[in-house]
Amino acid sequence: MRSNNYLFIIVVVTTTLLLLLANYSNATVFKSDKYFKVESIGKDSYRLTQVNIKNSNQDDVDEYENVGSFRVSSIDFPLEWRQRRVLDEQSILDNPEDLIVKGVFSLHGKSYSFVPSEIYKALPYPEDMTPTDDYDNDQTSAMDGSGFFYFLQAGFPMCRFRTCINAIQAVNVNDPKDKTKLAVFRDLYPTLPGFDGEWYREAVNNKKIMFQLEFERVGAAHVLKAYVKLDPLHDCPMFKMAACPEGQTQVYSRNEDLCLIPDRCVEPNYESCRFDPVPKCVAGYTLHQYVSEPSGCPQYRCDPSFLPCHR
Fold first, then answer.
1. Contact residues for 291 (Cβ-Cβ < 8 A; gap 6+)
2. Which residues form the domain of 56?
3. pLDDT at 141
4. Which of 36, 31, 20, 47 is nearest to 109 (CA)?
5. Is the dihedral of CA 213, 144, 53, 40 positive or negative?
6. Which of 96, 120, 144 is the last residue of a domain?
7. Has residue 41 been placed in a domain?
8. 66 and 36, same structural domain?
């Protein structure tokens, strides 16, 4: 009798595995080269909508799905990402509306799943000082393409007084041939306390920052939101350093991931240091202190708290 029960259990388990394998093998898998905005539409359910689509009827979900919107039952990090544990999958997905993604869709029956290959996450900005509050915009209506997502190309300038005047191009993230020349570009992120403008500019040049822009007029736009590309495979390196000689101190630089990299030992010259007040970081940013070349002066930066350098 007991042997019959065991046989029944084996048959059930084997049948279930075969059904799962059959379902997996029948899945339609396709990799999209487009970027999608993520929206939570219920417990463990999301809508991924292709960004920069013009004149879409978002009220009619079925029709809209035909032009770049997919309901997905799960968003799963690739195995390699999970093994490296650089990004916390759960915390990233806790606020899906902050994400822009690209990746692979799998259709199992009538249900989609999604595995990202790229993730951009919105840089925090204080709710009480939204980026549009301080822009001087006398336009009565937004131009076509406002709210679209762009990379910036060529000559990202140093900005003063919240305005960047230079010839740069905004490149549609989903259509590289769609380029808009900008004479005026306004961005308030660099004005946040302790914000690392040098890192930001470098990230922009390397397409690690994606912008949601609003156009004020032809050739002029301002930033609604900036998104930073997350690197799931590179954590901050650990260094075991020998102690500096007596009277010297270790100085550091920071790499493109905001990780501290030891440079060398120097004799501190604090008289040459400029002791600015320690910045008070806004919500979503973490204070980071280190000493730098050439004189061992203290540096303070407010960095996005979700980046691996603060885990």
1. 249, 250, 251, 252, 268, 297, 298, 299
2. 2-120
3. 45
4. 20
5. positive
6. 120
7. yes
8. yes
190 sits in the region (left: phi over 0; alpha: psi -120 to 50; else beta) called alpha
How confident is the prediction along the chain (311 residues), in pLDDT tens digits per residue? 555 555 544 444 444 444 444 444 456 888 889 999 999 988 778 999 999 887 544 444 443 344 588 999 999 999 888 888 788 888 888 889 999 999 999 988 878 899 999 999 999 988 765 555 455 544 434 455 568 999 998 754 555 555 555 568 999 999 999 998 888 889 999 999 999 999 999 999 899 999 999 998 888 899 999 999 998 877 788 887 788 999 899 999 888 888 888 888 998 888 888 878 899 999 999 999 999 888 888 999 999 998 876 55
**Structural domain includes residue 305:** yes
The CA distance from 29 to 176, in Å, is: 25
The token pair at 293 is 């070349």
Whether 142 is covered by a domain: the verdict is: yes
Tally the domains of the chain.
3
DSSP 31-97: E--S-EEEEEEETTEEEEEETT-SS--TT-HHHHHTTSEEEEEEE---HHHHHHT-S-HHHHHTSGG
Residue 1's SS3 state is coil
Other Cβ atoms within 10 Å of 71 Cβ, number: 16
- Indicate whether 96 and 174 sit together in one domain: no
Provide the pairing of β-strand 28-31 with 45-50.
unpaired
Buried b (16+ CB within 10 A) or exposed e, 261-294: eeeebbebeeeeeeeeeeeebbeebebbebbbee
